[in-house]
Amino acid sequence: MRILSAFRSGLSPTALITAVSFFGAALTPSLMPRDPLVQAALSGVAAIAGYEMTLLVRALWRYMELPEPRGRLLKFWGVSALVISLGILIYSLSKSASWQNATRAAVDLPPLETDAPIFIFLVGAVIAFVLWLVLRIVGIVRRIVARQLDRVVPRRVGVVLSVALVGWLFWALVDGALIRTAFRTADASFLAADLLIEPDITQPKDPMKTGSPESLVVWEEMGRRGREFVATAPTRDEIAEFHDGNVMDPVRVYVGRRSAETSRERAELALDELIRVGGFERSALVVVVPPGTGWMDPGAHDTLDFMLGGDVATVAVQYSYLTSILSLASNPAYGVEQARELFNEVYDHWTTLPHDDRPKLYVFGLSQGAFNSQSSLPLLDMLGDPIQGALWAGSPFFSRYWSEVRDNRNPDSPAWRPKYGNGSLIRVMDQYGGLEGKFRPWGPIRAVFLNYGSDPIVNFTFDSGIRPPAWLNEPRAPDVSDKLSWFPVVTMLQLALDSMFALDVPRFGHYYIAPDYIDGWAAVVAPEGWSKARADDLKEIFERRGPPL
């Protein structure tokens, strides 16, 4: 009977209305389009979040001994809540397709005829019910613990202790049995993929190539992404079709996670290899921090090779097998450590070279790589001998320099493409522009942020659960629907889920492509004789290639 009573106490007409309202709000437009299954999962989680928040308010109401409806009034309110909830549900599901199409229109996708409303409702309801059931079981366990504690401590102290103990036990179970197991499984799976040697990726025979038999870096230990990066570099002949004058094969150095035991050893190996292959003899040197898996975006690196006629060296070190999100969740400090070690090794050697006989030094990072690069760049320590520039694409919302630029932007600029200071050091661009305007001329260091307005990884903030984010203010980014509205808690959940599917649509969300890298690199590197016509010609070459897989 006590168990049934505990389940009955988890029922509330007011909470039902809140849950259905959250369910419907989760169907409204967001930054990324979602398929019906994902939409159902989001709506189910949002519904139970709204439901439990209402129960929490009800518990506080009862704790203060405030009046509640009883008898006939309670029955009337129960029936009214069912009618209101049904109306909200029918309206939301009938609008779900048009709301989804508003998001699709903003990212240039064709509209849907239907968004499978019945499927969304059924799957979302099942998910919400399962979560509700789990939380009721947790509540029953808490009551059992509280009754045992009542024997030795005052009742209210027992309530607090029971919440703390059961909460800790529940989190230990989830973290230990589920999350850590999932991370171990994911790590093993991504490691297996990293070990895979594709038959169409062949080991270089040129002794001056990283991974060759003469290289300091063993080919098999470079990892799948490293081998791909080195083996698919544009050749001198390919570059010559675009670039006038002398051209050369670009230098690419990549050290895999399995190439050495520690971050320091991998960074030292990368520097030794970079010296061996003549990386410091090129006109430009780029220190890259890749995303979690170690992937090197061809759109970012091939474009610069073409722009500079191959007279560029690129160096990177892998620090994880996992994707950026999993890597950040499992060990966020590890990528920062590897990025710091690599930059320090390269920079310290670079500063020993004569100023008139060394390459210009740049840094690049994409996604988690942008975060790690910004976290590890010793800006104050290198002011006496600064690097020449940085290009950061898709900087996560918590990135060091991006958050400074966004939060302290000039008042007349939007949060999705902020202007910072006089523009002589930092400028922000998207696929629609941003590099030109009323700026002071570039100074000795050029830093460019490439962010798309529809990128949830850039736009997400935890306070979006309690207040509208600044990027929703007018004017909005062209790739953000004007029908996107803010809802407490729900918008934060939408953005969190959008982050998991931000790579689905090229040139929107978190899927950055070559034409925009070309404009970004042109601003940072300022190639000699560069023009809009040259940029258009190079963009045409890479548009024919299509977006990277």
What would you note in describing this structure?
The chain has 549 residues and is α/β, with parallel strands linked by helices. It is 51% helix and 7% strand. It has helices spanning 2-9, 13-25, 36-63, 71-106, 117-149, 155-195, 224-231, 236-240, 263-276, 298-307, 324-330, 332-350, 368-376, 400-407, 456-459, 490-500, 514-525, 532-545, and strands at 251-255, 284-289, 312-317, 360-366, 389-393, 426-429, 446-450. The termini are far apart. The mean pLDDT is 88.
List keywords for this structure.
single chain; 549 residues; alpha/beta; 7-stranded parallel β-sheet; 18 helices; 7 strands; 7% strand
Mean pLDDT: 88
Fraction of residues in helices? Answer: 40-55%
What composes the largest sheet?
7 strands, parallel
Number of distinct beta strands: 7
Report a brief summary of the structure.
The protein is an alpha/beta fold and 549 residues long.
Note the topology.
Elements: H1 2-9, H2 13-25, H3 36-63, H4 71-106, H5 117-149, H6 155-195, H7 224-231, H8 236-240, E1 251-255, H9 263-276, E2 284-289, H10 298-307, E3 312-317, H11 324-330, H12 332-350, E4 360-366, H13 368-376, E5 389-393, H14 400-407, E6 426-429, E7 446-450, H15 456-459, H16 490-500, H17 514-525, H18 532-545
Parallel strand pairs: 1-3, 2-3, 2-4, 4-5, 5-7, 6-7
